[in-house]
Amino acid sequence: MEILKGGAASGRIKEEVAAMLEKMGGTAPKLAIVRVGENPDDLSYERGAKKKMENFGLRVQSFAYPKEISHEEFMREFQKVNEDQDVTGILLLCPLPGQIDQKKVAAAIDPAKDLDGISPVNAAKVFAGDREGFAPCTAEAVMEVLKTAGISVRGKRVVIVGRSMVVGRPLSMLMLQEDATVTICHTKTVDLPAVCREADILVAAAGRAKMLDGNYVREGAVVVDVGINVDENGSLCGDVDFQSLEGKAAAATPVPGGVGTVTTAILARHLMRAAQKK
Ligand code: NDP
Predict the structure, then answer these.
(1) Atom 6 (ligand 1): residue with closest C-alpha?
(2) In this predicted model, what pLDDT tens digit does every residue of 50-59 receive, in sequence order?
């Protein structure tokens, strides 16, 4: 089984970003990471994103607010970041605490700075097949991993487990744009293993540790694991039981070191695109 590590795609994007930076000259674009509270998952994602931006030669600044902040106060603070001329792009760490209306924040973000595609404007562009918008970084990272490995999705049967607006749905649209035949699964899907076994390319984005094993995979299929979970020993793991794929799947992405590595590289690419448009 071929292991599709994210490092290859990430390295390719790093070179692309370096070339764009050189061409652009002047001050490097700046990413604003907006966080409410101290959720360990958010802090870990923020650390990873910061490291990647700095490694790519890009600027990054965190804007952190207490978890008790009111909706009104947060909207005022968020608007300042939104209008800051020195901020090229924004990454809002979600989910936000319950008192903040996430939909209103998503509607308020400047679509030109919305690097992770949360604004309704960018979501509509993704669903309309307009490549000018920003797709969610994770969905785009899945496409990039496949592209870097030379795996075309055209005409292939793609099964995606998960229908969130962050991964499953936008990814299904990106797959359609590349002429895949797409099935989206969720908790009400009947006989999930049988549906998954129809896949040439199986994407796991359910957020359930090691839920999909070899029984869900057809011989020779490609498996992309988007999940980031913690297993019974406290170690990071995906939605796929990686060991059980051996001798069955043709290729699979590991966790960690797979899609997640590419997600932050895509964020950097989006930051450069936002800077170019500016
Ligand atoms: P959500 O919880 O928003 O969505 C999960 C989806 O999976 C839902 O559509 C749900 O169905 C479906 N699902 C859950 N359990 C099952 C099941 N037993 N059978 C079938 N379908 C199921 O999660 P996200 O989309 O935000 O994230 C998914 C995973 O990806 C998580 O592990 C997350 O940590 C990871 N992630 C990774 C990123 C990266 O950079 N690699 C970035 C973002 C997320 P239903 O709609 O019916 O409830």
Answers:
(1) 162
(2) 999 999 999 9
